[in-house]
Amino acid sequence: MKQRFLKAFLSLSIGFGVFSYTSANAQSLSDIHKKQAENEAKKQKKNSEIKEVQGQQDQVLKELEKIESNLEQTKKDIQTKKTEIDDTKKEIDSLKDQIAKIQKRIVERDALLKERVRSMYESGGAVKYLEVVLGSQNFGDFLDRLISLNLIAESDKALLEEQRRDKAQVEEKKQNVEQKLDSLNSKLQELNGLNDKLKAQKEAKNRLSASLKKKETHLHEDVTSIEEKNEILSAQEKAIKEEIARAKREAEQRKREEAARKAAAEKAAQQQAAEKRAAEKENRQAPAPAPTPKQSTPSVSANFIWPTKGYVSSPYGTRFGGSDFHPGIDVAAGGASNPIVAAADGTVARSYLSSSYGNCVFVSSYIDGQLYTTVYAHMSERMVSTGQSIKQGQRLGTMGNTGHSTGQHLHFELHKGQWNYAKSNAVNPIPYLH
């Protein structure tokens, strides 16, 4: 009767332990699925924001293309005006040469006319002419002299008219060209102003485009971060299932070991009882009470060992005046090959290279019905792979300085439950370590 009761008690104890593992795991998996659904919703929202930003970028690029086209046309117009200005300047230079030549002839003619006027003044003016005419030898000579005088007067008059006409024409052309040059310079100034305006618009649009591009990049980074978090959660889900299977296997193994110990104890008790009955019969001694079988103890302890040797360079909790929360501890040490070991038995939920954690390993462990997650980050190398079952003290990698790190150390996190991006399950690891 006692043996049947003991068997029933042990079966219930082991079954209840497995049930507690399964219940705890079911709750953990449910939380993981919930977090995954939340992350998926956030991802969809970020993707919608990315599409909206990309649409804004397309509009900005169209405006930039239009501005670029206007800018090129303006450059062509400016070049055309510069060519016209150069041609006009050449015309002005040519006219200046003509003016200089004409002015030189005018000066020479003015000197000749002044000389004639001075001579007439000194000789009495009209008397001189009269003497020239009256001094003729005959009527034919008179006519020749009179015609010569008239021709000289007409020549001087024509010369003066030619000088005035050429000078007026040159001055008119010069004025027209200078007006044209002023107009071209004004137009060039307007085009330069338009060019500066278009450049300013282009710079503004480029800044806007760069801002939108930067925003899109950040959104992509957010999506990548969410995807990485989902991957960690998925990996944890798989690791937890592995831990359930491991817990069942260990429970069944303990059950078999307990049954074997019980059978051996019963056999030993029966043999001892038989021996004692024989001895009692022979020696008439009183029977001794049968020994009570010892209860087995769980093979896994709630304690964790230190994952590496060194000193705590940054403790758990708030840092930098309360502006930053540190969800774990940093353990630093010199040397190039400091080993990192598993703080407890478990299953590697994920072993990968993270942009922030660097070379890191996530381990899921069930200890006395409680799920724990340990994180080992910034390692220089990893020696275990995702899904691998590990034992306490097994080497996971080597202390390093990868990811967002400012020096060689191990960043170690302990979560009472599964890891989540809010780090809400993180606890101070030091009280758990021995």
Put the structure in a nutshell.
This is Peptidoglycan DD-metalloendopeptidase family protein. With 434 residues, this protein is α+β, with helices and mostly antiparallel strands.
Description:
By secondary structure, the protein is of the alpha+beta class. It is 64% helix and 14% strand. The protein is built from 3 helices and 13 strands. It has helices spanning 2-123, 126-134, 139-283; strands at 311-314, 317-319, 324-326, 329-332, 339-341, 346-354, 358-367, 370-379, 381-382, 389-390, 395-398, 410-415, 426-427. The strands form 3 sheets. Strands 1, 4, 6, 7, 8, 10, 12 and 13 form an 8-stranded antiparallel β-sheet that branches. It has a 3-stranded antiparallel β-sheet with strand order 5-11-9, with no helix packed on it. It has a two-stranded antiparallel sheet with strand order 2-3. β7 and β8 (370-379) form a beta hairpin. The longest helix is centred in the middle third of the chain and has 145 residues, at 139-283. The two termini are 44 Å apart. Residues 99-173 form the Peptidoglycan hydrolase PcsB coiled-coil domain. Residues 325-423 form the M23ase beta-sheet core domain.
